[in-house]
Design a protein that fits this description.
alpha+beta; Phosphorylase Kinase, domain 1; Transferase(Phosphotransferase), domain 1; 3-stranded antiparallel β-sheet; 12 helices; elongated
């Protein structure tokens, strides 16, 4: 959509728009080259259904006059694909620069079959837009906030994850599968559990460490879900380099280093969605804080995602407890987000695990 403002766009904005188009065109070119090479190697002259589908898609794209680059041009621009920006579930993204100084991100799709590659190519251009993904995140947050704060008795879901968020025909999210849910009296801040609940990768640390549980465990799970919405990939992918295999920790490193621009390139987030994406990153980091006191209420999460509430810049590494053998100092305050608490708690705790706990990357939480 064009802006309603009469102020002409700056040269920087024009460059950002141009770069965005270039990124799309580069992706198209890569797959076209792959398809042509494979078509030439086929003995039969009869095109397959998948090839016809791809040709139709490319013909539709040509109506928008995309620029196609040769494989050689892309190799020159990326210095033979040497500067890896990051990797997703279906390909790697490399940094490139054209002779006119334009920076580009080149994504090379990979897969085990022609069908898999072609499906991913189509998905790169026809999947839900980032603005709609943001709406899905907000709708999910509202659903959890309703369970926590608007029901007669608080309902803790315990298993917030992508598989339990259903989308209707209009992509409106609905929180589903209450098989592990538990009612909680609002007067009791902690919940008694007889066994572990939740799904590894989404369950809060206090759940698998058997520490006192609160409704904030759902906030943690939502934060992990939010990371997957931002990256459009599973948080854990062991096929990626070690520095990128766990997406939330990689995001924190980029955020801490002030390199969110690189994150946007890797995740295919356009310039127009940059502000929304940065907001989502900050919210995700706050939601997955190790101490539940630092996590915001879900109603606050909704306001932060909608832009109705200013988001303090996260300064505490939420994954510091996963660094074995390292003393951890945590400063915390419950007054910033948690309006359920009438008392402000501030202080410092040094945490160090035993050799066995360090081996399994488990830390003792100070109460």
């Amino acid at each position: 959509m064009s802006s309603c403002s009469s102020t002409p766009p700056s040269s920087g904005q024009l460059l950002a728009i141009f770069v965005g188009f270039v990124v799309v065109f580069v992706k198209i070119t890569l797959l076209v080259a792959v398809c042509r090479k494979r078509n030439q190697s086929r003995i039969s002259d009869k095109p397959s259904f998948l090839t016809l589908t791809m040709d139709k898609f490319l013909n539709d794209m040509e109506r928008e006059k995309p620029i196609r680059f040769t494989s050689q041009q892309l190799r020159i621009a990326t210095d033979n694909f040497t500067n890896l920006l990051g990797s997703g579930g279906f390909g790697a993204v490399y940094k490139g620069i054209f002779s006119n100084g334009t920076l580009v991100a080149v994504k090379v799709l990979n897969g085990t079959s022609d069908k898999r590659i072609e499906e991913q190519f189509m998905a790169e251009h026809l999947i839900v837009g980032f603005e709609k993904l943001h709406d899905i995140a907000v709708g999910t947050a509202r659903g959890i906030a309703y369970l926590h704060e608007e029901c007669q008795q608080r309902i803790v879901h315990y298993d917030i994850k992508p598989e339990n968020i259903l989308l209707d025909v209009n992509f409106f999210p609905k929180v589903a599968d209450f098989g592990l849910a538990k009612l909680s009296n609002r007067d009791n801040s902690h919940i008694t559990m007889t066994g572990g609940r939740g799904t590894p990768g989404y369950a809060a640390p206090e759940v698998w460490l058997r520490f006192p549980i609160t409704h904030k465990c759902d906030v943690y799970s939502f934060g992990m879900l939010l990371f997957e919405i931002i990256g459009r990939r599973r948080n854990l992918d062991l096929n990626l380099p070690e520095s990128q295999d766990w997406f939330p920790r990689w995001v924190w490193k980029k955020f801490e280093a002030g390199q969110l621009g690189e994150l946007m390139l890797v995740c295919g987030i356009e310039e127009k969605d940059k502000e929304i994406a940065e907001r989502m990153v900050k919210v995700a980091i706050w939601c997955v804080q190790y101490r539940h006191e630092l996590r915001p209420l879900m109603s606050v999460v909704v306001k932060m995602l909608e832009g109705a509430l200013e988001i303090p810049k996260p300064s505490i590494n939420p994954f510091q407890h996963l660094m074995p053998g390292t003393p951890i100092m945590v400063a915390y305050s419950t007054s910033a987000f948690d309006t359920d608490s009438s008392q402000t708690i501030t202080g410092y705790r040094f945490l160090r695990g035993t050799p066995i706990m360090n081996k399994y990357e488990i830390e003792i939480a100070s109460i």
